[in-house]
Each structure stands twice: as C-alpha cells, then as structure tokens.
Amino acid sequence: MTKDKILEAAIHQYSLHNYHGATMQKIAKEVGIKPASIYFFYKNKESLFVAAFQKLLEDHFKRMQSILEEVHEKPILDIFATLIKGTVEYHKNNMNETNAYISLVTSPPAEIKKFLHDHMNKFDKWMIDSLHHLIKRDHPKISDEEAVNLTRKFILLLDGIFWEINLYDDDELSVQIEQAVHILEVLLGGNYNAK
Amino acid sequence: MTKDKILEAAIHQYSLHNYHGATMQKIAKEVGIKPASIYFFYKNKESLFVAAFQKLLEDHFKRMQSILEEVHEKPILDIFATLIKGTVEYHKNNMNETNAYISLVTSPPAEIKKFLHDHMNKFDKWMIDSLHHLIKRDHPKISDEEAVNLTRKFILLLDGIFWEINLYDDDELSVQIEQAVHILEVLLGGNYNAK
Amino acid sequence: MTKDKILEAAIHQYSLHNYHGATMQKIAKEVGIKPASIYFFYKNKESLFVAAFQKLLEDHFKRMQSILEEVHEKPILDIFATLIKGTVEYHKNNMNETNAYISLVTSPPAEIKKFLHDHMNKFDKWMIDSLHHLIKRDHPKISDEEAVNLTRKFILLLDGIFWEINLYDDDELSVQIEQAVHILEVLLGGNYNAK
Amino acid sequence: MTKDKILEAAIHQYSLHNYHGATMQKIAKEVGIKPASIYFFYKNKESLFVAAFQKLLEDHFKRMQSILEEVHEKPILDIFATLIKGTVEYHKNNMNETNAYISLVTSPPAEIKKFLHDHMNKFDKWMIDSLHHLIKRDHPKISDEEAVNLTRKFILLLDGIFWEINLYDDDELSVQIEQAVHILEVLLGGNYNAK
DNA sequence: TATGAATGAGATTTCATTCAT
DNA sequence: AATGAATGAAATCTCATTCAT
C-alpha cells in the first residue's frame, strides 16, 4: 500500500538525514511517486512524521515483547542473554529503523516529544515488571529491592550494548555481549571464580 | 575571536537541529554577524562543520584525559566511579556539545565519517591502555586477559550510562550510576569472598 | 508553452548580458513566472542553457537550409547573392538570436564546446557539399578543385559579411554586400571590367 | 607594476567569462593580491574595465599601425597579404586579448559603447585612408572610386578571416588565407588579362 | 489516486564594495 | 600600498505546499 510505503520511506530518509534532511522530494522518490501525491495521504510533513514515529516505537515495543514471549520459559540468565542478543540482532537487521529510533530519542522534533516520553515510560515499566516477575520466579529468595536493582543493572547493560551497536563492528560487539552476559552471571550466581 | 564563536554556534545549532536544520542564518545570528561573513572564515557549510566536529571530538577527548589525570592516584574503584560521574557531569554541563556529539556518532555526515572512525579508535585505545595499566597497578594478581575484560566491562557500563543521560532525569540517573559502581565493586571482588 | 518561452527568454537574455548576466530572475521575469518555476522544467541554469544553445544552432541551420532550398533553381551567382542577403536579413530580424549565436561561437561555455564543434563541422560540410554541387551544375567545366576553392571563397565572404553585421549600420552593410557579390561575379565570370 | 597587472588580468578574465563573469575576486587572484586592493587603483569595477578596454583597443590599433609601417614599401599585394597574416598571427598569439576584443565588439557593456564606436570609426578611417593611398601609389590608373571599393573588399576579406580565427584550426585557416590572397590577386588584375 | 505546474519562503553562496588599520 | 573583516544585495537553488485536473 502506498500509504505504508510512504511511512517506510519517511523512516528510512529520517535515519539517513534527520528531520530537516528527510525531504518530501526524497521520500516521494523512494516510493516512486511525486511529492504532491504524499499530501493525499498525509496532511503535511509533520503529520507524516508523527505517524512514522508512532510506527517506529510500536514496532520496537512489539519486537521486544515477542522476544520475551519466546523465551520466558527458560532460566532467567538465558532470558537476559536472549534479550540482549535479540536486541542486537533486531537492530542489525533494521539499521534504518534503529538509526531513526536513536535520532528520535536523542533529538526528538518538538511535536513528538510528549508522545516519545509517554512511550518510554510505558516501555520501561513493562520491561521492569516483566523481568522482576521472572527474576522472582527463578530466584525466590531474592528480595524485591534486589530484584529491582538487578533489573536496573540489566537495563543498564542493555543500554550499553545498544549504544555500542553504533560504535563497534560485529566481532567487537560479540565480545562486549559476552562481557554483559558474564556480568549478569556473576550477579546472579556469585560463582565468579567459576568462570 | 569571531572564527571560534562561529564554531561554537555551529555546534550549538547542530545539537538543536542537526546538520540540515543548523542553517548559516541561525549560526550567524547566534554570533551576531551576517551569514555572508561566515564565508570569510570558512569556505562553505561543509568545511565549517568539519572544523566544528573536529573541535567537538578533541574537546571530548581532552576532557576525558583531564578527568583521568585528576584521579589517577586514587584506588581503581574510585577512578571508575569518578570517570563515570565526571562523564555524566561533563555532559550535563555541556548538553549542547553532548547532543551534537551523539548526533555525530549516530548519524555522521558522510564527509566526516573517516575522521570520526579514526578518532573513536584512538579514544578507545587510549582508554583501554590507561585503565589496563591502572587495574594492574592496584590488582597485580589479575591476569592480563582478566584486566582487559574488566576494562571492557567498564566501558560497557560507561556507554550504558552515557546513553541513559538522554533517557533519564537526574534522580533516575543517579540510581543507575549506583548500579554501575556496584557492578564494578562486585567485579573487583569488593564484597565477594569468592574472589 | 512555458518550457519554450523559458528557452526563448534565456536566449534573449544571453544575447543581452552573456551567460553570467542572464540571471534566472531576468529570464523568469521575461516569461512572467517566478524564478523557482524554471526549475520545474530545467534541472539548473546550465542545463537550461545547453537546451537553449542547441535550439539556437538548430534554428540557424534550418534557416540556412530553407534559404538554399528556395533559391536552388536559380543561377549560382543569384544563389550566392541570395544566401548572403538572406543571412543578413535573417540576422537583422533576429538580433537576439544572432548576438547569442556570436557570443556562443566566440566564447562558448565549457559544457557546450563539444556540441558546438560538432555542429560547426556538420554545418560546414553541408554548405560545402551543397554549393559544390550547384557550382558544377552551372559551370560544368570548372574542375573539382576550383569548385572547392570557390566555395571556400564564398564562405570567407559570407563570414566577413556576418562579422560586419556587428560593425556597420544598414547603409554601410549594403555597400559591403555589393562588394561581396561583385567579387563572386568576377570569380565566376572574369568579365571584371564589365562592371 | 600592480596597476598594469590588474589591467591585464581584467582583460584575461573578461576574455574567459565576459563582464559579469570577470569578478574582482578572480582578477585579484590572478594578480596575486586581495580584491580590496584593486580599489586602491581603480574606483570600481566599471572604471577598471573602461581602462582595460581602452588599453585593448589602443594596443590593437598600434599593432595594426606597426604592421603597416613595416611593409608599406612593398607592393600593394604583399601589403594586403602581410596585413592579413599579421592580423592572424597577432590574434593567435594574443587569444586572451582577441577574445576580449571580440566580446567587446559583439556585446559591449553600455558604459563603453560610445568610446567603442568612436574608436571603430577612427580605426576604419585610418585603414581606408592608408590603403587608398598605397593602392593609388602602385596602381595610379585606378580611379578613386575603384580604389575605395578595393579597400572595402580588402576589409571584407580581413573581417572574414578574422571571424574564422574562431572557427577553424590552423591548417584550415591557412587555406582560407590563401583564398583571400588569391581573390585580391585577381582583383588587382594579377593573372587576368581582362583588366 | 496521482500529477503537472506553480510559488513563497528560505537556504547556500557569490559579489562588489567599504573601512579601519 | 595592501589587507582583514564585514556587509547588503543579489544569484542559484531547494523545499513544503497548493490547486486544478
């Protein structure tokens, strides 16, 4: 559908050139239509990008949910590792969207700032709740506070890996993922010297 | 000096609006000159931004070096903590430059990509070398491999915190910094009898 | 059609002010549109002028062909005279195009140099072939070499007249045309003292 | 002297890009000074070019005079031939100035039109007078009217050759010069028993 | 649904010129 | 005699948008 293709092209162009550089011209060209035609589907550039960003964030959220769903029966360390690897894999396979997502988070256009903040809260809450529940399932003796802190540490590591997707090539990134998993192992098991 | 003021204004406008949104008009206005005057100092927009980005990366590097210099006599855990806090503090105090730095890293203009990559390599190499040396100083029994891995873990945590500067407010960020320091403590065997 | 009107205005402005003086502003004003609209039809100034110059040269060629066609049944001296007078008349009536043509030939923009050279070759070849054939028709005893040289002489005289269109007013030019015709008469007939 | 070098650079740039394209920037660069420095010597662009064009026309005139002076003792046909060859040679060796001269004649800037017209008249008058006198010297029987017409024919041929300097390469031009000389030979009765 | 044609606004850049030094 | 610094004006071109078809 043309409307969806416009959305995808908008995200792609945004990932390449940011808001001001993602021109209606370039978007239209990528879709194979004329700029005037975009206005049949979207009122103007701003509303096109509001729609594009919503799709972007929702896709990202859904993806994270589906990863968690797939692995939620495994032990918590496996879940952690799978989430990290799944995140990396997803972003490697969707660099367009990921770059757009990063640009969006780091310098959101004024119009979408509120929407973005709400989304982030929802996402964080969901992840903390889900992980907290799974930690307690596997390690019933861990206190609530410890479980929360462990979740926070996991998110911190996930954010570190996420940022490093931009900085490192595949091999270096694999090493960093190992480091992250190893940290979680230590935190969960205490069998540090066992490694 | 006008030339330097132009550079700073370019970075500021870049942090606000990215490359295409940082117009010569806005930059000139911020400096208090007319757009045409910029061309006396810089051949064109591209070369202005190449100069701006070089300054940005060099400033960032120098700042990290000076933080490390200030604390290098303390125990390694303090150094880790200070580096993390110093990084956060620096970025909080220089949001212009930080946002510009992030935009630059996530979606660098084609012309500066090589320069950026070289800089990143230099910076990483410097940080790994410096920390490796300090870890061995305080924990002489740690093997080279372990020291390298510890450094990598520290960088991973630092990257996580760095990314979260964008996402969290001050209080939340403090909590995350605590988590990071706690992880490093654990890794260094602080409250782990296992080590 | 707007596209054609732009072309004509470009030629006119070029004849008045040369390439750098023929601004998009002036061209648009002459057409009755805004400068930005030109870019709907032509990618940029350069490609507009490449198109304009092609039209210019083609028009000139076609005109010369049609003159020759009209008179080719008359005796060769009449043909010579008609070609000279036709050339002058055409240029007097199309001073825009003629001035543009001269500017083009004397200082062609780099982009059109090859096209210009090819055109000139084609034009020369056509004129020499056509005239050679007509000379032999009327004066079968003239050798091939003599016919070629006579053609060359005619072209030389035509070029002289052409250049003098710029220098002389109408009366002076008429005198010069007479001189040219007289020379051709002499060359063809040898009855020099007859005049 | 800088003032003269500016003049030469102005002519050169004019020959390359015409009035609007010959910028103070380019002229200054060719001289090796800064644009602002030109204003020490010339009030503004217009007065610089008035001076440049005067020099151009005077140089051209002087050159023609000196050629004539060198050969005025030879027979008239030799004088004709030498003038033609001298003109070509001069222009081939001074393409900068020649192109500037042609541009000037074909599309003079408004400010210099009067000066140009006066110069042309003076030049023509001088050439007609000089040649008329020399024709009568060698061919005392030729009537005044015939002498005038012969001079006109010579000028016509000279103009033809002049225009062809732009169109033909060296070899082709040599052939055309031969044609011109041959015509003059015929007109002077060289190998025509009819006269 | 889609486009051709057009435009106002504004972006980048160039240019002639000025003026203090 | 020459320049560094600056600017108003204008040139080229882009961009979001409109509207009739």
Automatic annotation (TrEMBL), chains A, B, C, D:
<keyword id="KW-0238">DNA-binding</keyword>
<feature type="DNA-binding region" description="H-T-H motif">
    <location>
        <begin position="23"/>
        <end position="42"/>
    </location>
</feature>
<dbReference type="Pfam" id="PF00440">
    <property type="entry name" value="TetR_N"/>
</dbReference>
<dbReference type="InterPro" id="IPR050109">
    <property type="entry name" value="HTH-type_TetR-like_transc_reg"/>
</dbReference>
<dbReference type="InterPro" id="IPR001647">
    <property type="entry name" value="HTH_TetR"/>
</dbReference>
<dbReference type="InterPro" id="IPR009057">
    <property type="entry name" value="Homeodomain-like_sf"/>
</dbReference>
<protein>
    <submittedName>
        <fullName>AcrR family transcriptional regulator</fullName>
    </submittedName>
</protein>
<feature type="domain" description="HTH tetR-type">
    <location>
        <begin position="1"/>
        <end position="60"/>
    </location>
</feature>
